[in-house]
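re: ur question from earlier - yeah i can do the single chain one, its not a big deal. heres the input i used so u can compare w yours
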Amino acid sequence: MSFTYLELDNKTSMINIHHHTMIHIIGMEIIQIRMIFMVQHSSHTLLQQNDFTQQVYLKYKQQYLDEDQ
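and the output i got, formated as C-alpha cells:
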C-alpha cells in the first residue's frame, strides 16, 4: 500500500492508493488529477498503523454455512 500526499489550498490530504494514479502538474499547481483507486476508510488505516490484522475464521464460517442449510 502506498500513500500519496497532495497539498491543496494549504491543506494536506492523505489518500490510500490501491491501484494506478495519474497526476498532471504544471509548475506548482495541480491542474488535473485522474485517479483509479479505492479509498480506504480512515478507521482501517488507523487499525493497520496499530498493527491490527483481521483474522478470517474459515472454520466457523463453514460451520455456520453448514448449519444454515
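The longest helix spans residues 58-68. not sure if urs matches, ping me
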